[in-house]
Structure to design on (670 residues):
């Protein structure tokens, strides 16, 4: 598909995305996303999972417009709490705390908030341009993928995701395997045999992934906060007024380079497996600090340290849609939830999606341009309004989030058993946080598990039992070699220790323990 | 260590249960093939992790994740989960509106909002708003229970 055809399709997409109904859903997604981003303890994963049941009555296009809006909207909202309170609204805003909060301490919260909204808009919009022109050719190339390539791609995805989340590769890999095992519960996708259902009709349909998502990411976070002593739940904040928001020409001049570099870094990171927005912010911060003429200002309120990462997380959020749409393989936990939502709506993302359901793909892409614009408008003048939500004390917020999780969970299948399952995974999520196990690989594996098993078994059927099929096909071989490389990274790190403990792992502990307070990956 | 042992057991149980399913062969993998492979992989990874924990000296340099666990009281968490579990059990008999009110009241007071007037008002407002939004407007068939609404 050439550029002109893409543009033509995009125009068609705009025609669908600008209907009153779809504009409403883009707007709602943007508002809910900003709220999810602002509220510490409710991140994009739990936020999207909670809203899935509300999309049941919608057509798949409107549903995806709404849910995607929550994802990128959360990236806008996330910076607000980081800058004003030193508490990231979600993990992709952890880095913003470092310089954003320092700026706020110096009375420059306004410019920090404004520059992160402007950077988010520029980064997001450029990345959607990439999505517009890159996804169709990539989907075309992926049409040549067979089961062995898809299997190797998924193995590659898990290993890279495990490598970049948390601090221990082996722990993350174990979580991925647990997710895959949970994914085998229910009917065998090939033969239709019952597996691990113990005679329960409830388990026949498999483990409800929404229960796992809300449990591990929503309830788990609520419980971690509930465990804290009561005094720590009382945090108040000073919110800047509208007229304080304007950045100075000097601020803009210093930020523009960081914004453009953040766009590039974020876009690249979004294309590879991992919790893209989170990695993007760390990478962008490192790039800015290294390139800066005043590296000593970083950590003391350097505006580049806000502009770069806040741009990068939006850029990564948008480019992470490229593998989801073109390959049908989500590379991170949030896109995994979106895949689950699409499957509920009877849409199977993959190389054929763009050619077979062009209206859906192009309308969603067009809605992203619109959504980003809405978010810029929402976030610049209304930041003080959203920040006011932070005046609600945590001891009121936590019960509210818990209550919403229960109601939202019930409405997925109108089932009380789902609530029990969610609670069980909530307790598991709390334990995982206590023992420093990551939830992202588990969730991704649960959603992708059945796909991966089918690809594996089909490959073996094609090769009549020869595992060599994964090595004989060039793309599959390349992916497996890359996987091996990523598995060896920790070993190499141990061998070359002085080089090994890179800035990412050092920064993963920053800033001043706020990572623990933060929201969700 | 406890988590690694639990994962080792989980892998073992998965592998054992998979053997009760038709495993098949590489030529024709059956329903049990993939879970068996996963169970064994998990056992291997958990075993390796246990060895890693056993032999690695637990200095701050090798255990950077150690201080990441949430600080605070497990007792509060158990009470919090307990309250939610009781509410879930009562959802069917008592119904959604009543349970929402009681659950919010219990959680708010549990987290330190001791004044009845404040906690009661927040709980009442939440329950009413939730009832109007989810039951009346969105028509979600939440349990009616004892009150019958």
């Amino acid at each position: 598909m050439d550029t002109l055809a893409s543009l033509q399709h995009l125009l068609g997409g705009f025609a669908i995305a600008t209907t009153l109904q779809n504009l409403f859903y883009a707007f709602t997604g943007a508002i809910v996303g900003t709220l999810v981003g602002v509220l510490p303890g409710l991140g994009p994963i739990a936020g999207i999972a909670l809203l899935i049941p509300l999309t049941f009555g919608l057509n798949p296009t409107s549903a995806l417009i709404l849910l995607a809006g929550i994802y990128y909207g959360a990236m806008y909202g996330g910076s607000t709490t980081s800058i004003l309170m030193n508490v990231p609204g979600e993990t992709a805003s952890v880095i913003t705390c470092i310089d954003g909060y320092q700026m706020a301490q110096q009375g420059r919260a306004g410019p920090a908030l404004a520059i992160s909204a402007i950077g988010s808009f520029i980064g997001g919009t450029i990345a959607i341009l990439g999505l517009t022109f890159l996804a169709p050719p990539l989907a075309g190339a992926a049409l040549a993928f067979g089961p062995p390539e898809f299997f190797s791609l998924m193995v590659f995805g898990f290993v890279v995701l495990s490598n970049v989340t948390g601090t221990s590769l082996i722990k993350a890999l174990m979580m991925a395997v647990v997710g895959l095992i949970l994914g085998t519960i229910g009917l065998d996708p090939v033969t239709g045999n019952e597996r691990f259902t113990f005679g329960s009709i409830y388990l026949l349909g498999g483990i409800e992934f929404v229960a796992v998502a809300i449990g591990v990411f929503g309830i788990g976070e609520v419980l971690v906060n509930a465990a804290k002593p009561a005094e720590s739940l009382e945090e108040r904040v000073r919110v800047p007024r509208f007229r304080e928001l304007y950045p100075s020409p000097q601020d803009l001049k210093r930020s523009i380079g960081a914004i453009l570099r953040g766009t590039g870094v974020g876009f690249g990171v979004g294309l590879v497996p991992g919790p893209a927005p989170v990695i993007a912010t760390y990478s962008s911060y490192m790039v800015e600090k290294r390139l800066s003429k005043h590296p000593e200002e970083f950590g003391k309120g350097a505006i580049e340290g806000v502009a770069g990462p806040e741009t990068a997380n939006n850029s990564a959020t948008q480019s992470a849609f490229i593998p989801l749409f073109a390959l049908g393989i989500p590379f991170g936990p949030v896109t995994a939830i979106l895949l689950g939502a699409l499957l509920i709506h009877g849409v199977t993302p993959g190389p054929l999606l763009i050619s077979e359901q062009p209206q859906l793909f192009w309308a969603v892409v067009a809605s992203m341009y619109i959504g980003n614009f809405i978010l810029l408008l929402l976030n610049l003048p209304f930041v003080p309004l959203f920040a006011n939500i932070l005046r609600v004390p945590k001891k009121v917020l936590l019960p509210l989030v818990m209550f919403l999780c229960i109601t939202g969970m019930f409405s997925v299948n109108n089932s009380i058993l789902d609530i029990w399952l969610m609670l069980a995974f909530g307790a598991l999520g709390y334990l995982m946080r206590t023992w420093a196990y990551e939830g992202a690989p588990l969730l991704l594996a649960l959603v992708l598990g059945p796909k991966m098993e089918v690809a594996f078994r089909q490959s073996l059927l094609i090769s009549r039992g020869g595992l060599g099929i994964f090595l004989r096909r060039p793309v599959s071989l390349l992916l497996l070699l890359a996987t091996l490389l990523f598995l060896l990274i920790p070993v190499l790190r141990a061998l070359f220790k002085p080089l090994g403990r890179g800035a990412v792992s050092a920064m993963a502990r920053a800033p001043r323990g706020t990572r623990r307070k933060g929201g969700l990956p | 260590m406890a988590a690694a042992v639990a994962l080792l057991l989980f892998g073992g149980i998965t592998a054992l249960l998979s053997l009760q399913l038709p495993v098949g062969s590489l030529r024709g993998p059956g329903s049990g093939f993939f879970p068996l492979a996963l169970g064994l992989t998990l056992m291997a990874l958990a075993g390796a992790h246990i060895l890693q924990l056993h032999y690695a000296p637990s200095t701050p340099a090798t255990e950077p994740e150690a201080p990441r666990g949430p600080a605070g009281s497990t007792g509060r968490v158990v009470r919090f989960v307990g309250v939610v579990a009781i509410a879930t059990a009562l959802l069917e008999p008592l119904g959604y509106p009543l349970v929402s009110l009681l659950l919010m009241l219990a959680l708010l007071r549990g987290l330190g909002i001791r004044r009845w007037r404040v906690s009661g008002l927040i709980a009442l407002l939440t329950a009413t708003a939730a009832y109007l939004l989810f039951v009346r407007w969105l028509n979600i068939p939440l349990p009616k229970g004892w009150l019958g609404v």
